[in-house]
Write a structure and sequence with these properties.
- The protein is an all-alpha fold and about 270 residues long.
- It has a domain of about 120 residues.
- The protein has 18 helices and no strands.
């Protein structure tokens, strides 16, 4: 009897809160969105006074139930603005299928903000990165430069592969760029004497053994880098370079000179 009475009181309380959420005016409605069970929140969403301001306030909450996002997504007129879409996608609880449907509606820099946002889920970050990377070929150079400087490792790696010298220089200074991506770029067909030299001069990358070796194994590497890098290599590594079939005769000549120099010091 006591338990039944408690349940009845709870149900009545929730019903009352649902009614208040459904009938509150614009200002009162903000308080009806805070810390409420799903039934009350869904009633608030049906309130004729519910607008973009209420939605933005609601999206600041965490642990929102999926039904809230489903209901909001069904109201197309309410989620037309980029501001609203950004707020929805920024909430970690948004279902993946709804986020994927909304992401293409954002600008490339809104997508960048989401990909860099602390607390964002890996799936949300991956989805935002994917849309950005799909748009990279059609972006003006200015946008690409901004993405190169600020983008995530996946974004900057995609930009580096384009091989444009201004982009390469910006990518190399991005702290999120990984060594594997730089190595892959040097060995790719898109690297040129100019961009290889950018890597060789860059303070972050020029001292890394794997990067140095990749530079010396590239037939497009300018002569100056053989003169500067070979003297610092072990004899076994220099000998290994002689077996690289891609090197030009002139490059192999410089390698032999470096090897002879090693022998003369023994």
């Amino acid at each position: 009897m006591i338990d039944s009475a408690k349940i009845a009181d709870t149900d009545q309380n929730v019903s009352l809160r649902m009614y208040h959420a459904l009938t509150a005016d614009k200002e009162e409605l903000f308080s009806k969105l805070q810390g409420q069970p799903v039934e009350v929140l869904l009633s608030a969403l049906r309130n004729l006074a519910f607008d973009e301001r209420h939605l933005l306030a609601l999206m600041k909450q965490r642990d929102l139930p999926e039904e809230v996002f489903t209901t909001l997504y069904a109201n197309k007129s309410l989620i037309e603005s980029n501001r609203v879409k950004f707020a929805l996608i920024s909430n970690p609880e948004i279902p993946a299928h709804i986020a994927a449907a909304l992401l293409p509606g954002l600008t490339v820099f809104e997508l960048l903000k989401i990909s860099l946002m602390p607390g964002i889920t890996p799936d949300q970050r991956l989805s935002a990165e994917r849309v950005i990377i799909q748009r990279i070929p059609t972006q003006p150079l200015g946008n690409k430069m901004t993405l190169a400087r600020r983008g995530t490792s996946a974004i900057v790696e995609s930009l580096l592969r384009e091989g444009l010298p201004p982009l390469v220089e910006a990518c190399l200074d991005n702290p999120r760029l990984k060594e594997g991506a730089v190595h892959q770029f040097i060995t790719s067909h898109t690297s040129t004497a100019e961009t290889i030299s950018m890597v060789a001069r860059n303070g972050r990358w020029k001292g890394r053994p794997n990067i140095r070796l990749a530079i010396l194994k590239n037939p497009r590497t300018p002569t100056i880098w053989y003169n500067l890098l070979l003297p610092g290599l072990p004899q076994n590594t220099i000998r290994e370079l002689l077996s690289v079939p891609r090197l030009s005769p002139a490059q192999k000549g410089l390698v032999r000179q470096a090897l002879d120099g090693h022998r003369s010091t023994l």
